[in-house]
Specification:
Rossmann fold; 33% helix; alpha+beta; globular
Length: 126
């Protein structure tokens, strides 16, 4: 998706009102993804939304390379864990993913091309 298209999508989001958290390329930096998503869930009221745009792992051999690469690069302050399945982690954290789009970001590094955008709604515990 071109940068201009993302600018239009982000501009269309409602103003933050405590019912919305937006994460763009942030969850991949979290050392403990489950704890980070639990903090987001705790801060949102029932029905609150998490909008995320993150890079993700791919299946197969390239996915295994991404995980190894991500684990090594994550040791640097700017590093991220590119092999993660962000949508699955969001679901495990108690969100219902209502909108999900996978896309390739144009970048010279093939390990950083797989991205996902989505909207998730906080569910109440049953």
């Amino acid at each position: 998706m071109a940068a201009g298209a993302w600018d239009r999508r982000l501009a269309a989001l409602p103003e933050p009102d405590g019912d919305l958290v937006v994460s763009v390329g942030r969850l991949c930096h979290e050392p403990d993804l489950a704890a980070a998503l639990e903090r987001v869930r705790r801060d949102l009221p029932a029905g609150g939304r998490l909008v995320f745009v993150e890079h993700i792992g791919r299946p197969g051999v390239l996915g295994r390379v991404q995980t190894a690469y991500g684990d090594a690069v994550a040791r640097f302050p700017w590093g991220c864990r590119v092999g993660r399945d962000i949508p699955a982690a969001v679901r495990r954290a108690g969100f219902l993913v209502t909108d999900l789009e996978r896309f390739n970001m144009p970048t010279p590094n093939p390990l950083l091309r797989s991205w996902v955008s989505g909207i998730a709604v906080r569910r109440d515990a049953a």
